[in-house]
Amino acid sequence: MSLEPRPHQAMREGAEFDTIRALMARWGDLAVDIGDDAAVLAPSPHGTRVVSVDACVEDVHFRRAWISAREVGVRAAVAALSDLAAMGARAEYVLIAFVIPDAWREELSEVADGMGAVIREAGARIVGGNLSQGAVFSITTTVVGCAQRAVSRSGARAGDLVVVTGLLGGPGAAIQAWDAGESPTAWSRGRFAAPAPRWAEGEALALAGASAMIDISDGLAGDARHVAAASGVRLDLDASRVPAGPGIAAAVAMQSGEEYELLACIPEEAYKKLAMDWAAISIGPLTVVGVVRDGADASPTSTASPVAGGFDHFASVEIPR
Amino acid sequence: MSLEPRPHQAMREGAEFDTIRALMARWGDLAVDIGDDAAVLAPSPHGTRVVSVDACVEDVHFRRAWISAREVGVRAAVAALSDLAAMGARAEYVLIAFVIPDAWREELSEVADGMGAVIREAGARIVGGNLSQGAVFSITTTVVGCAQRAVSRSGARAGDLVVVTGLLGGPGAAIQAWDAGESPTAWSRGRFAAPAPRWAEGEALALAGASAMIDISDGLAGDARHVAAASGVRLDLDASRVPAGPGIAAAVAMQSGEEYELLACIPEEAYKKLAMDWAAISIGPLTVVGVVRDGADASPTSTASPVAGGFDHFASVEIPR
């Protein structure tokens, strides 16, 4: 796939990291622990409070011709809540900031319905937000939740298995089709328009003892690098084991972004126990796709390299089961 | 002043309320208590957790020609933190979601410096955020804080005094000048570009026993109506008592938006005690501008009326001191 910015990409990976580094340099110790999917606030008697924010911008994260207004809402809500799932947290409160051009005014109710359905299913409540007019439609969603055991990106240890939920590649295949002027398959389209929420899976992985977790928003290969960098280890992925959706090539499944499936690192014994219960937790599979290795050679530089290079970096290896 | 949308207005008042009503109709009991400056989450041993989100969009909330990149950051941070001040809460955590066009990439460090300076002064920390490319620059800021005593908009009771912090009218006068192709006074410009944060004042008003509080983002007259509607009372304001900035007409001070000063209702005895200590709390004044009356005639309809009509609605009356 091209390394040029694609419409579904929030920001080219290099540019995003450059910007984050520049911001961190300005903020110094004012900005703490901002590398995870969500921020862990002070622990409470009921668990750890976790908060995250996610933006969905027209013509950046989606195009109006691709999906319905309701699907725009579903997608924005799942994307935001996914950041909590990736910490093992359940959502409790949601705040929604809309920027609304006149052309979207009529459709806002449909967007709201889509968001509402997802938030209701998650068991959370909408407690606030912000409305602004503006030239470009966007939804910025703040989610506040609680984790019995919060899992960051930084705890992966050599020997852990690397697992992923669900089947990958749908969003990438859908965008490839749209970009080529074709229609995506119903399955791929559905994975882009209404990704499956994985909060039950995230909580189960956390409670089972996952050492690190992330949601797959930058693609499996890219997000594996995020975990590797944060944990100071190497994640060796086996492309032949990546669970691709129907008719989807392994390379697409490896790099497809905005999946909102979860990647977790987990000790082998914990994985074996969890795997026995998995059918009661999720209708999707839980698949071992790699292993965590000692990370002397996992430098931040290789982690920030382009996706195509990263794919080579994670050499195919034999994985213990 | 014109009732047409102005560049600094997030949304015309009528349109904003129509949109909120439409959203509430879709969300039903999923959306709770979203009428306040910030949402009150579950109480903790250290106080009540409060969270809010605020957006700052180029060419809606400011124009690039008016203020520097650093001031854009200062203004966005003060606006967001002001919602916590209006609840009597202190900020603890901040999450910042940027949408960044290429033209803003170079200036982002200056924006970050401005936000950082305000957040540091507030004693809060930046714990997360989101970066997205996009055609229009915006900052959506989520603030999480804690209140020893959280004050909503809905507690005003007949007999309470209506007080405001600081001197009003600066942002309105500055925008009037810019719109007329003139230069605003340094004072007015400063009030728009770098509003004074009022968190110490908000906390002091809350602890002194304020019954209702709001930050003046829609103009004194408009925000008084918000409090009146939420509390089921009438707020009678005396235009001759409104503390206007240097050279600023009372009508401008009454209607100038995005002040980020605080309007509070407070029992007279509590006000008298607080007034004696005020000089130690704030360098600005605390001014009695009105009184709360029984609100049989304060219908939601009159509350949602245009600003100019609202100005008539709040007849000038004698105010007890």
TrEMBL record, chains A, B:
Mg(2+) 2 binds at residues 54, 83. Reaction mechanism of ThiL seems to utilize a direct, inline transfer of the gamma-phosphate of ATP to TMP rather than a phosphorylated enzyme intermediate. Mg(2+) 5 binds at residue 218. InterPro entries: PurM-like_C_dom, PurM-like_C_sf, PurM-like_N, PurM-like_N_sf, ThiL-like. NCBIfam families: thiL. Residues 35-146 form the PurM-like N-terminal domain. Pathway: Cofactor biosynthesis; thiamine diphosphate biosynthesis; thiamine diphosphate from thiamine phosphate: step 1/1. GO terms for biological process: thiamine biosynthetic process; thiamine diphosphate biosynthetic process. CDD domains: ThiL. Residues 157-296 form the PurM-like C-terminal domain. Keywords: ATP-binding, Kinase, Magnesium, Metal-binding, Nucleotide-binding, Thiamine biosynthesis, Transferase. This is Thiamine-monophosphate kinase. ATP binds at residues 129-130, 153, 217. Substrate binds at residues 61, 258, 311.
